[in-house]
Amino acid sequence: MDIPLHQTATPQGKMVSLPLIDQTQPDHSQLDNIKAQLDLVLLALEALAGIGSEAVLQAAAELNLQEVVSDRVALWRLRQSNPLRRGTGGRKKLDIEEARSLVMISCHLAQQHQGMIREAVELLEAIAQTHCQPYQVALLGDYLDNFTNTYQERMAEDTLSMDALTDLALKLLIDLLFYSNSQGPRRLWMALLDRANHA
Amino acid sequence: MAAISRQFNCSSCRLEITAQPSPLSRWAKRPILKSVDFLLSFQDLSGRHHEPLEIRGDQAQLQVLSETVSHYVQNVLGQSLTTSVFGVPWTTTLTPSDTPSIPGNEPQDWAARVEIDSPKILPEQSPQTTQMGSSPATMANQADAPTANPDSPYLYPRSLLTHNLVLGTLTTNTDDKAIPLKTSQLFDLVSALDNCAAELETLPLPMPTRRPALPIWASSAAAIVLMVGVTTATLQITQKAPPGNRDTVTTASHSQKTQPPVASAEVDSVTSAPSASPTPTDQSSSSAAKGSPQPTAAASATAPNSKAAKAETSSQQESPVSPSEAPPDSWFLASPSPSLVKPKQEEPSPSSQPSEQDQAIAMADQPTSAQETAKPSAPSAALPAAPPTAAEPSPTGASVDTESEKVSEQRDRRSPEMLNRQAPTTATHSYASALAPQVVAISQYIRQRWQVPVGLSQPLQYQLTLNPNGSLKQVQPLNLVATQYLPQVPLPAAHQPFIAPFQSAQPALVRLVLQPNGTVQTFVEAKANPKKN
Lengths: 199, 533
Prior knowledge:
The structure holds two protein chains of two kinds.
Chain A: H1 34-49, H2 53-62, H3 72-79, H4 96-112, H5 114-127, H6 138-154, H7 162-179, H8 184-198
Helix pairs in contact in A: 1-4, 1-6, 1-7, 2-4, 4-8, 5-7, 6-7
Chain B: E1 4-9, E2 13-21, E3 32-42, E4 53-58, H1 59-77, H2 81-86, H3 109-113, H4 136-142, E5 154-157, E6 162-166, E7 171-172, E8 178-182, H5 183-199, E9 201-202, H6 206-240, H7 243-254, H8 260-271, H9 278-290, H10 294-302, H11 309-317, H12 322-325, H13 338-346, H14 348-365, H15 369-374, H16 378-385, H17 398-414, H18 416-427, H19 429-434, H20 436-449, E10 460-466, E11 472-477, H21 480-484, E12 508-514, E13 520-524
Parallel strand pairs in B: 3-9
Antiparallel strand pairs in B: 1-2, 2-3, 3-4, 4-7, 5-6, 6-8, 10-11, 10-12, 12-13
Helix pairs in contact in B: 1-5, 6-10, 6-11, 7-8, 8-9, 8-10, 9-10, 9-14, 10-14, 13-18, 16-17
C-alpha cells in the first residue's frame, strides 16, 4: 500500500516541508525510477568519498565493463538518463546491460570505500542518541553539503526541500553500507526492481 | 572425518560454524558440510555491557536465520524512496520506552523523521499485505513475520537506524526475546551470514527431503500391505476351517452364484467381529455373488476388529502408512517400544479401514433392489460401527449396541496390558505436548550425527534426562547393547544447552531409540513411570 504523497504531515510537523499540491512539482515517484536510483547511488558515493568520473572509469576497467562505460562521455550519457536531471534528463533509455554495469560499478566503489561508509553510518547512529545534528559532525556534514549542493546543481530546480534532501542523503548512505558487501550487487539490483514496482 | 570449525568475524559480531565435512567435499570446490552447529555472538549490544550475547543453533536454524535476515535487509533496501523519505510513517517518533538511546535524550528532529513506530508484530499476526516495501509500516507488518512457524526468528524495524531481532526458539544466553540491532550491527550480521553461505556449502537437511517422498509410494505401499495382510488373514481363515468348509469356500469362488451364503457364513464364523449385524454378511455375500473377491472384501471389513493373530499383524504392517496421516503432535506415537506403540498404532488403522468397509458396503448397495429393500437401516447400522472408538450408541437398532459391545470386549480381551498403559499416556498427553519441540530437536540433533556402527543388529535404547534449560543431565542405557555402544552415540555434552529450554519444575525424561537401520526415534516418557523396560 503506497502512502499518497499529498497526505498531510503529522501533528509534530517535523517532516515534509514540501508544498503538498503544487503543479510545478515533479513527480516524486521518479525517485524510484531505476535510472534515477542508479544516478543517486553514484551521487551519494561522489558526495561521501569524492569519487569522480576517473574512479568510476577505473572501476569499470577493473570489472571489464569498458565496452559499456568506455569514457567520460559514455558515463555522462548514462547518468544523464536520470529523469530528475536538468535539461535532457531522462530522454536516453537505459538497457539492461548498462543498468547492470552501473550496479556493478556502484557496488565495487562502495566496497572500496566501505570503511568510510561504515564510519559515517556509525557516526549517524551515535549522534541519533544525542542532541547533535549531522551537520555538526565533520564527515556527515561534508557529505550532506556535498550531496545537497550537487543535487541542486544537477537536478531540476526546487524539487526537494532541504529536509527532504537530508533524509534522502541519509537513506542513501545507509543503503550504501549494505551495497558494500559481497552480496551488494544482488541486493542493489533487487532493490532497483522493487522500487521500480512502486514508481 | 574430523569436525571442522570456521569463524566469520565482523566488527560487532562473530559467526562460528562447527560441522562435519561430508565425503562429497572431495568433488566440490567448496567444503560441503553436514551436522552444522553455529554460535553467533554479538559484542557491544545496547544494554549489555561487556558480556557478549550468544545465539546457538543447528543447521536448520542457521538456514532460517540466514534467510530471515537476508529477506529483511532486502525489504529495507527495496523500500520506495518516495515513501521512505516523504512518507508519513517515517515522521512519527518513537515512544520513549522504545528509544534505544540514553534515557532523557530525545532524538533530534532529523532523527525523529527517520524514526517509526515500533509495530510490535506478534508471531501470530499474519502479514497484512504482500506488497513489498511500499512503506515502512507495511514492511514492518510483513517483515519476516513467520507464517509457517510462529517460533521462527524475525525482524522488524524500529527506525531507519535501529531494528529488533526476535529470536524465537533460538537458544541464547539472554532472557530477552528480542534484541535491538543498530544498522551497522545488522549489516555485520547479514555480512557474516553471507560470507558463511558463500564459503561453505551444507548438505540439505534430510527431514524435508524424506517427507515429500513418502506420499509418492505411500498409497501403493498401503495397497500392497493391505493385500498382504488380507491374503494372510484369508489363508489363516481357510487353513483353520474344516476341509469340507474349505471346499465350500473354493467352490464359492468358482460357483459364486450358487453358494454365496455359505461362504459368507464361513468367513463370519471365523472373524466374527461385526457379524452381529446381518448387513455385512449380506453385503459380502452379494459381493461374492457379483464375482468380486469375496474373502478379501469380508476380511478387509472385519480386519480391524478381528481377534485373529494374522489380522493383528496386518494392522501392524499398516503402521508405516498411518504415521503419515497422523496429526502433527503425534510424534511420540512413532516410538518402537511395544508398550506405547501398540495401542496408538492400532487406532489409526481402523480409521483407514472403515473406508474399505464403506466401499464394500457401497459396492454391495448397488446390485440388487431386493437387498436394498431388505436393509433400510443396514448402512446406518454398519457405518457407526466402523470406527471402533465411536462408542456412542446409534439410534438405529440393537444390533449396533451389541456390535460395539463386542468390539469393546475384543479390545479389552486383546490388550488389557495396553489399556493399562494407555491411561497414563493420555494423562501425560499435555505434558508430552509441552515437550514436543524439544523431543523433535533431540531427534534432529542425533539424526544429523548418528552413524550406525558396523555390526549393530539390535536397537539401542537410552533414557535421556533433560534439564529445563535444554541441556542433558543424564543418560541411562536401557539394554546391554546400548551400554556397549554408548561411546559411539553422538550425545551432547552434559549440562551444555543444545535445545531450547522448556518450562518444567523437574527434569524431563526422553526415550531415545537408535535402530540398526539408522532410524532415530525419540519420545517423552511419562513422568510417573520413567522406566518401562
